[in-house]
Amino acid sequence: MDETSVRLAASHPPRVGCELGRPVFFVGFMGAGKTSTARKLARTCGIASVDIDTYLERREGKHVKELFAEVGEDGFRAIETDVLRVLAAKEPLLVSCGGGVVLCPENRAVLKEEGFVVYLQVTADEAASRIRDVSTRPLFLDLDTARATIEERLPLYEEVADAIVDTAGKGVAAIAREVRGVLEREGILWQRK
């Protein structure tokens, strides 16, 4: 892992040493808890995590909102695809993806072929209650639009998912424990000997 990746994947000192057999990609609508869950799991397991949007922003030197304004959604998705490929090629990480990563067929192929995909389900109403500042979310215009967007993306999330975790009414620690259990059962995550 290069220096930039290590900085971006920085997690607290490990409590328990675990290993990942392949990258784990977290997908789902904004507000599902993808980044928080990946970070919590990284801290408790002593493995690296990275948020695609943060990685992308640092690499491009601009915020997602600025990129959307400058290059449009299609341009942003092309950059996102490149970043996804770069991260999939690194040693296994926990990767929290942007909510729209599944819109591009190439991304869906990378997700399915290169890693294990955890779909964190969330309703639009619950997502709205979790997002403090929707101004940083260019596609979260209002609740009705969010509901329609989730409905539209649902088959794509389900298509790529190796595991589905319903996040309704659960805190980050509970979601991370559930995901860890899934990853251990599937042989994706194990304790280092």
Q: What's the arrangement of secondary structure elements?
A:
Blueprint: H1 3-8, E1 18-20, E2 24-27, H2 34-45, E3 49-51, H3 52-60, H4 64-88, E4 94-96, H5 105-114, E5 116-121, H6 124-130, H7 143-160, E6 163-166, H8 172-185, E7 189-191
Parallel strand pairs: 2-4, 2-5, 3-4, 5-6
Antiparallel strand pairs: 1-7
Provide the descriptors you would attach to this structure in a database record.
alpha/beta, two-stranded antiparallel sheet, 8 helices, disordered N terminus, 193 residues, Rossmann fold, five-stranded parallel sheet, globular
What does this structure look like?
The protein is an alpha/beta fold and 193 residues long. The protein has a single domain, classed as P-loop containing nucleotide triphosphate hydrolases (Rossmann fold, 3-Layer(aba) Sandwich). Helices cover 52% and strands 13% of the residues. It has eight helices and seven strands, in the order H-E-E-H-E-H-H-E-H-E-H-H-E-H-E. The chain has helices spanning 3-8, 34-45, 52-60, 64-88, 105-114, 124-130, 143-160, 172-185, and strands spanning 18-20, 24-27, 49-51, 94-96, 116-121, 163-166, 189-191. Strands 3-4-2-5-6 form a five-stranded parallel beta sheet, with helices on both faces. The longest helix has 25 residues, at 64-88. The chain starts with a helix and ends with a strand.
